[in-house]
Write a structure and sequence with these properties.
Elements lengths: L4 E13 L3 E12 L5 E7 L2 H13 L9
Antiparallel strand pairs: 1-2, 2-3
Amino acid sequence: MLRSVGDHQGAHKVVAHPEVGDIAFDSDVLTTQGTNLRLVVDTPRHADARNKVDLLSAIGIQEMTSKS
């Protein structure tokens, strides 16, 4: 069943990641009419943020620092 979008809210978020530093996102929250469902979509704001997300997707949960 398709539902109409009830509301759209936009915001900016900054996530502090311990390995790559701050990552800036645009955050969009869409709600549906007649339900309490929400869809949250976060997209990197700038090329630098996109590069950090790409790096994190490549390394997964590996640590970037070497242990001596």
